[in-house]
Design brief:
This protein is 30% helix and 23% strand. With 802 residues, it is of the alpha/beta class. A hairpin with a 2-residue loop joins strand 30 and strand 31.
């Protein structure tokens, strides 16, 4: 059943004598009477209402419109002759499948459910294994993960007599092998208790489930005429109010000065301070502003101003920084393109953005070729903007400052559309990012930043403007150094870097280079390490915290997306998080942003329940350049707030009072895969692999193998000092920690994980696994008899393998 999406999937392999815990709640007398009255008026039973309410709760928790759970019956309502006089336990539990059409009127949906339950009564004496055999659920997997038991045969124990014997005391003992069993006792006040496996569900979540069940019952019997199922609430007013509060930005940061204006102010205030370094080259703020002013003047003469887009296609170096600043100071918006991308993609981006001017150099211009309507300006050797003896005082900046609502940059991202799409970000959105995060980081002129990431990756926006808009120094990392962790480590030491921004994948390679370089901690000057750009697996940081602690440098996880101006949330990561249980905590939103977590129908989900993240507020970009339909689809107005639908799967982590204080990132919605009937997040397997002492990095993918397209999990891992039987050892280690369906079918060892120019894992560069030999180091056993040869041939044909 879809209850696996609620966190019930980790039940395989648990011991049969698992000690279950029990908790419960009692409904009010008023609600109990309303249930009985409603059931009588609509020819229902309390059991049917409980079934309906539990189906609604399961659907909301799993994000599904089709749920399955077990319903226990006494087995004495059938037509078998003599059933009423038969001695024995005839109880049976069979699956109930409930379809939840959110547009169905509540009254008619309840009538259909009642009819389906009546039809199911004819099967109540059918053994569960026969039902399983007739289903599409694979053998070995449960039909359902939760069961509902309604004890509707009350017994007056005190009045029982057996001749001269009387009952003086009694006790009831229930045992179950399901992660969650609900026991309902229709009395003067309806009692609902839960038996649950504490290794799968925590007590707080079970209390919340029971509370939502009570709310759903009340909502079903109070639904106004004409209301539909999607309007039935499972959360109470206080809970809904708290979630609504998080959907409201807390503070505003009006754009008083744009980021380019802040850079200019620092340059005019402290012209002799070094602004940019690249290798042996050092540019003071005064010299940098002089270069920027010359190039900006030339761009203004070429017609660049507010609303005009300029392409930037330059190698890493000081000229790259000058070009970006000059476009901004001329009032235009810059469109960065990465030199490592194919020429066809670059030409497509420039054409799609209708770029009129392209800033480049002669080598790059030759590689990209001509683009219709684009005038190329080669900066290398151009005396009109780069004179050998620039004065300390800059040339006069041209008029044409961009306003808060003008375009600051357009960065192209890939997506489900199959073609790059340009995200338009305005100066107001960039400026408020700097202001809204300043209280957390306290960036200033003494900070030294690296420009590590590609200029076409929005992390570079944070790096470049974070340094130069705050008077700091920007160290441009040479191309070769970005791909050499040992050289990058040395650069951090030589330049005295204080603020380091990294994707988790890149930081992991730096960490291992640091461990290999020295047995003692390195003398970094780092005070801030900011991680972002992809999912963080917290256990990967254990070697760093063991070596450097968690105070200086402070490590922060920043979740964000290009469409919401680089960053969305902020979460300091400490040593305590290593054993905290959260897969990837991303924390709280930036103060001028709002976040909400919703189900597929746009309804807020309770604390602890996965849903899609929507981001609203001042950081939401203008939209996609020249794509009004796509913009309207992903950027939506609701409740006076403009929201971006991220497509990312998150959940609110429960706080001390289960109010939910921060977010946990769970992966992309489109990364979910289904294998052998199980919904699987590959990131969950990657997280567990990250806890192995010899794993230096991992990527888990789902791959179709064989002619039948059987989907299997494969893990690509970087293994330290692999032994001949490392795959077998890793498989056994995983089997002790995850259900069998989460153990990859094969493991592929890599020297290092391939990275994109943006520093993320490049999944497209992973080698194709071999379905016939999934595990390196695992030797197949040849067939030895005719029977074994026949069996091997049959399996090979079924699985499409050798």
């Amino acid at each position: 059943g879809t209850a696996g999406g609620v966190g019930l999937a980790g039940t395989a392999g648990r011991p049969a004598d698992q000690r279950f815990e029990r908790t419960g709640q009692q409904l009010s007398r008023e609600l109990t009477e309303r249930l009985e009255r409603f059931a009588g008026e609509h020819e229902l039973t309390v059991e049917a209402l409980l079934t309906a309410a539990w189906a609604v709760v399961l659907g909301r928790y799993s994000g599904a419109d089709d749920v399955v759970f077990g319903l226990t019956s006494a087995g004495r309502s059938g037509s078998l002759p003599g059933l009423d006089r038969m001695v024995g336990l005839l109880i049976n539990t069979l699956p109930v499948r409930v379809r939840l059409d959110p547009d169905a009127p509540v009254a008619s949906w309840l009538r259909r459910l009642r009819a389906e339950l009546d039809r199911a009564r004819h099967l109540e004496l059918t053994p569960l294994d026969r039902v399983h055999a007739c289903s599409e659920v694979p053998k070995g997997r449960r039909l359902f993960d939760s069961i509902l038991v309604v004890e509707d045969f009350p017994v007056d124990v005190a009045g029982l007599r057996f001749g001269e014997l009387r009952v003086t005391g009694w006790a009831s003992v229930q045992r179950t092998n399901y992660p969650l069993t609900l026991l309902a006792f229709p009395r003067e006040r309806l009692v609902v208790e839960a038996l649950f496996d504490p290794g799968v569900l925590d007590r707080g979540l079970v209390h919340q489930l029971l509370g939502h069940l009570g709310t759903a019952l009340a909502a079903l019997v109070s639904a106004p005429d004409g209301s539909v199922l999607g309007q039935v609430q499972i959360m109470g007013p206080a809970e809904r109010s708290e979630l609504a509060r998080r959907g409201t930005p807390r503070a505003g940061f009006p754009c008083v000065r744009t980021a380019p204006a802040r850079f200019i102010a620092w340059a005019q205030r402290d012209a002799e301070r070094v602004a940019v370094s690249f290798g042996d080259e050092r540019l003071t703020y005064g010299r940098l502003l002089a270069r920027v002013a010359r190039l900006a003047g030339r761009l203004r003469r070429d017609g660049v101003g507010p609303g005009v887009l300029v392409g930037v296609y330059l190698p890493r170096g000081a000229d790259l920084v000058v070009a970006v600043l000059a476009v901004a100071c001329a009032g235009g918006g810059y469109v960065p393109v990465d030199r490592r991308h194919p020429a066809a993609r670059l030409r497509g981006i420039l054409a799609d953005a209708s770029v009129g001017v392209l800033l480049t150099d002669r080598d790059a211009a030759g590689g990209i070729g001509s683009v219709d309507g684009v005038r190329t300006v080669c900066l290398d050797g151009s005396a009109s903007w780069d004179e050998p003896d620039e004065p300390a005082e800059p040339a006069e900046l041209p008029e044409g400052d961009a306003g808060p609502g003008d375009v600051a940059y357009v960065i192209y991202t890939s997506g489900s559309t199959g073609a790059p799409k340009g995200v338009v970000v305005e100066h107001a959105q960039l400026a408020r990012l700097l202001d809204a995060t300043q209280d957390w980081f306290e960036f200033g002129p003494d900070d030294v930043w690296t420009l590590f990431h590609s200029i076409a990756f929005d992390f570079s926006v944070w790096e470049l403007w974070g340094a130069l808009a705050n008077g700091g120094r920007l160290v441009v990392v040479p191309d070769g150094v970005t791909r050499d962790p040992a050289a990058f480590r040395q650069l951090l030491l030589d330049e005295g870097v204080t603020v380091l921004n990294q994707t988790p994948s890149a930081f992991r390679t730096l960490l291992h280079a640091d461990l290999e370089a020295s047995q003692a901690p390195s003398p970094y000057r780092l005070r801030r390490v900011i991680l972002g750009g992809e999912m963080l697996n917290v256990p990967d940081l254990r070697p760093w915290f063991d070596r450097y602690g968690d105070a200086r440098p402070a490590v922060t996880n920043m979740y964000g997306i290009t469409e919401t101006t680089v960053h969305v949330t902020y979460r300091p990561i400490t040593r305590a998080d290593l054993d905290g249980g959260a897969l990837s905590p991303i924390g709280e939103p930036i103060p001028d942003l709002a976040v909400r977590v919703v189900d597929p129908h746009g309804r807020p989900v309770p604390v602890g329940v996965p849903g899609e993240l929507h981001v609203g507020g001042a950081g939401v970009a203008r939209g996609y350049l020249g794509r009004p339909e796509l913009t309207a689809e992903r950027f939506v107005e609701d409740g006076g707030v403009r929201w971006y639908r991220t497509g990312d799967r998150v959940r609110w982590l429960p706080g001390p009072d289960r109010s939910g204080g921060e977010l946990e990132f769970l992966g992309r919605l489109d990364d979910q895969v289904k294998i052998r009937g199980h919904r699987i997040e590959p990131a969950e397997v990657e997280s567990v692999l990250g806890g192995h002492p010899r794993i230096r990095g991992s990527v888990v993918t789902a791959t179709d193998v064989g002619e039948g397209g059987h989907r299997q999990l494969f893990a690509y891992v970087v293994v330290a000092d692999p032994e001949p039987t490392w795959t077998q050892q890793l498989r056994e280690w995983l089997s002790e920690r995850v259900p069998d369906y989460l153990v990859p079918a094969g493991f592929v060892a890599l020297d290092q994980l391939p990275l994109t120019p943006n520093g993320k894992v490049d999944r497209s560069a992973l080698p194709a696994p071999s379905p016939s030999r999934p595990d390196e180091g695992t030797e197949p056993v040849a067939a030895r008899t005719d029977t074994e040869r026949i069996l091997a041939q049959v399996w090979a044909e079924v699985l499409g393998l050798e």
